[in-house]
Amino acid sequence: MQKKQYPEFSAQKYATSLRLIILSVVSVILAISGCSAPNPSGTDSSNQSTVDERKVVAAKEGPADQGKPEQDSIDDQAIVTAHERDQYSKPQEVFVFSGVSEGSVVVDVGAGSGYNTSQLIPLVGKTGMVYAVRGSAALEERIADGDMAGTNNVVITEEATAVPDGVADVVLLIREFHLAPDHPVYLANVHRMLKTGGSVAVVEVRSGKPIGYDHTSHRSGEQTVIKEFEEGGFEFVGESDMLRRESDDYTAYAPAGKRYITDRMLLIFRKI
Asked: In the chain, how many domains are there?
């Protein structure tokens, strides 16, 4: 009688088939649950992907995008907003153009919470001094136990009249001059606090017209500002277009709620 032939049993082939079946079942379960299979290398590929995506986003972002405030952190919002303002206001460039250097005595009129004052400190160094006129309680707190703690060369005064005679190398009037009720009296006080040959840096928002003031939008005519300073005992020595903004329509006080994106003049005068 003929013997019936059966396929030869192989343990190795059986194990391989069983592994394939198990892997197929696991893949189906993971796909349904939305998970992914473990990385055989043992590294966390999800974190690597996130980092790479952030690099791509950062590379695509321009100056305006980098200034957008983050929504998840108040501290981050403050940092990013300050960074955006720096991009438009260019404080360091303005200060250097104005003649501020190590050892300078600077009067920051309208100091407020210290946006300009805090950035003047590194420039004037330990041998310099900053008079923060009308510095606010927020500036006092920053110096007492905030980011400016340890600063000992800032003097906060309530009014510019408290600044000593002939002490200043540079006076900063950043969007301040147009607010003065009596320009000749105001200029006499600025002249008084400056050393002979000292400089005044004037930043004002352009009105789009060469003369006059628009007190509704707080804008000024460049030629009017120059004329009044020259009549007040100052020599006009230069100007810069670093704060010029051609896109300004010259009507709004603060386009998009941001005063610092307006078209501004930067004028330098010397005491004579």
From this structure: 1
Please state, in angstroms and rounded to a whole number, the distance separating the CA atoms of residues 96 and 216: 31
Q: Note whether residue 19 is domain-resident.
A: no
CATH of the domain at 169: 3.40.50.150
Distance CA 129, CA 157 (A): 13
HEC sequence for 150-219: CCCCEEEECCHHHCCCCCEEEEEEECCHHHCCCHHHHHHHHHHHEEEEEEEEEEEEECCCCCCEECCCCE
Residue 6 lies in a domain: no
**Distance from the first to the final alpha carbon of the chain:** 131
β-pairing verdict for 129-135 and 105-112: parallel
pLDDT of residue 207: 97
pLDDT value of residue 30: 46
Which secondary-structure segment (H or E) carries 109? strand 105-112
Give mean pLDDT, residues 143-169. Answer: 97
The pTM assigned to this predicted structure is 0.71
- Does residue 51 lie in a domain region? no
Please say whether the beta carbons of 132 and 159 come within 8 A. no
